[in-house]
Amino acid sequence: MNNKFNRNFMKLPLILLFLYLTGCEELFDPTTVELTAPSNFTYKKIKINSIQFSWTDNSVGEEGFKIDKKIVDGNWIAGYGVVDADTTQWIDENAEINKKLQYRICAYFDNDSSSFIETDVIDNIFPSPTNISYESIAIDEVQLNWTDNSNGEDGFKIDKKVDEGNWNLSYGVVDSNITQWTDENAEINSNFQYRVYAYVGIDSSSSIETEFIDNTFPVPSNLVLEQIDLGTPTCKLTWEDNSIGEEGFKIDRRIDDGKWVDSLGIVDSNITEWTDNSITSDYDIIYYRVYAYSGEYTSVKIEKNSNTIFPGPTNLVSGSIAIDKIKLIWTDNSNSEEGFKIDKRLEDGNWIAGYGIVGENVKQWTDESAEINSKLQYRVYAYNSENVSSSVETDVIDNIFPSPTNISYESIAIDEVQLNWTDNSNGEDGFKI
Predict the structure, then answer these.
(1) Is the peptide bond before 404 cis (omega within 30 degrees of 0)?
(2) How crowded is residue 9: how many other Cβ atoms within 10 Å of its Cβ?
(3) Are 292 and 221 contacting, i.e. CB atoms less than 8 angstroms apart?
(4) Do residues 161 and 186 touch, judged by C-beta distance below 8 A?
(5) Which residues, in sequence order, are CB contacts of 267 under 8 Å at separation 6+?
(6) How far is CA 323 from CA 42, 171, 317, 378, 401, in A?
(7) How distant is the alpha carbon of residue 328 from its chain centre?
(8) Cβ neighbours for 136, distance < 8 A, ≥ 6 positions apart
(9) Per-position b or e across 325-349, b if 16+ CB within 10 A of its CB
(10) Which of helix, strand or coil describes residue 258?
């Protein structure tokens, strides 16, 4: 026997050895082994540290296949993977993460082998998450969401940085395939930032960051003051709640130039109204400010004063009902006023204060001594004791005595002429010819 035959002989399975020894060697000829390089050597990343390889077996009688591996710029690791004959698939379950790898494969029999076929360089980057977004779900809670682009990670880590401080590493950790996390201790009235990355063991992907998040405590808005009883008096405050998770709202008050009384009123979360029943009648202006709070944190304060809480009448209209009578009509916007006062001004003179007075809820008044052929003006306002609302004014009224028009005549006899005209005035004593 030649040397190659001896080598092949030593590797024959027992059943083939039996056939050979019994004279049936024509059934198996070990000299017919053909080692041809495999082809179609392809790969697929199935996990961040697992790569699956496939190829076409072009050999006959091979003992198996050997796969060499190297980290680019390093040396080949010979026989890193070995599979049996006729196997056309193998998985590297320890593919180095974030490294550039290359593989080659050959068929072999004993110490003989085919030529190699190589893969391209495989950049085994750990895919980072993408599409990070955030939502403030309460004044001290921020929810993060992202897209998971890796397979086989141990989970995700979240780092956090407050203002210009250092990153707080692994501030949050979630398991694999989880793409949401909530910071339940988001600092109120601070700026902070998050970054998220996948990890497996000591390896990690690159991170994706949020922008800086301005977690300012939302301010209530649209503060409205309504004086619901001017006699007592009392004032009702209403506002819009723009925060979620606040402990409640506080109301401060200041009268005229006095000091602020802090937390005069306190209401629970989601309550958006409060009534001040402790006002004395001895004041010019009352100031209020409202703000949300949670523990030691507060929102910015929104402020308004009582100049807005005694609403004046609106929609004042005037009409001449006679040459010396002008009627005023308005809309009453106040509650519990004592009544309304009407001031009057003639030509460019001074206002005559309280020229007319009507009781509460009365919404009209007639000047029965309107100066004829003069320019007049009126203003109307609500009052209660010493308090008055804003006023609403008419335009200047030119109270000209309307002349008759459309005069015509008709001869009804040789010594009689009849005149006709249109009367444009109301309340005249008569006409003179």
Answers:
(1) no
(2) 13
(3) no
(4) no
(5) 248, 249, 251, 273, 274
(6) 106, 85, 17, 17, 6
(7) 50
(8) 142, 143, 186, 213, 215, 244
(9) bbbbebebbbbbbeebbbbbbeeee
(10) coil
207-228 b/e (C-beta count within 10 Å ≥ 16 → b): bbebeebebebbbbeebebbbe
Which tokens sit at 294? 């949670």
Q: How far is CA 176 from the centre of its chain?
A: 28
First to last CA, the chain: 161
Can you give the length of the chain in residues?
A: 433
**Identity of residue 46:** I
The angle at the Cα of 133, spanning 130 to 138, to the nearest 5 degrees, equals 150
Where are the strands (E) in 50-206, listed by range? 50-56, 64-71, 77-84, 89-92, 100-109, 112-113, 117-118, 122-123, 130-138, 141-147, 155-162, 168-175, 180-183, 191-200, 203-204
* Distance between CA atoms of residues 281 and 287, nearest Å: 14
| Pair 20, 13: CB distance under 8 Å | no
User: Do 237 and 290 contact (CB within 8 A), yes or no?
Assistant: yes
Tokens 């403030």 belong to residue: 136
Token pair 């039996």: residue: 18
Q: Residue 284 CB: number of other CB atoms within 10 A?
A: 12
Which position has the token pair 């602020």? 260
Give the bridge partners for 173, in sequence order: 157
State CA 353 to chain mean position distance. Answer: 53
Burial call 353-376: b when 16+ CB within 10 Å, e when fewer = eebbeeebeeeebebeebeeeeeb
CA neighbours within 13 Å on the CB side: how many for 229? 10
Per-residue pLDDT of the chain (433 residues; tens, 9 = 90+): 333 334 444 444 444 445 455 554 444 455 678 999 999 999 999 999 999 999 999 999 999 999 999 999 999 999 999 999 999 999 999 999 999 999 999 999 999 999 999 999 999 999 999 999 999 999 999 999 999 999 999 999 999 999 999 999 999 999 999 999 999 999 999 999 999 999 999 999 999 999 999 999 999 999 988 776 655 678 889 999 999 999 999 999 999 899 999 999 999 999 999 999 888 767 778 899 999 999 999 999 999 987 666 778 999 999 989 988 999 999 998 877 889 999 999 998 999 999 999 999 999 999 999 999 999 999 998 887 767 777 889 999 998 888 899 999 898 989 898 989 898 878 788 989 9
How far is residue 403's CA from residue 416's CA, in Å, rounded to a whole number? 25
CB 222 within 8 A of CB 116: no
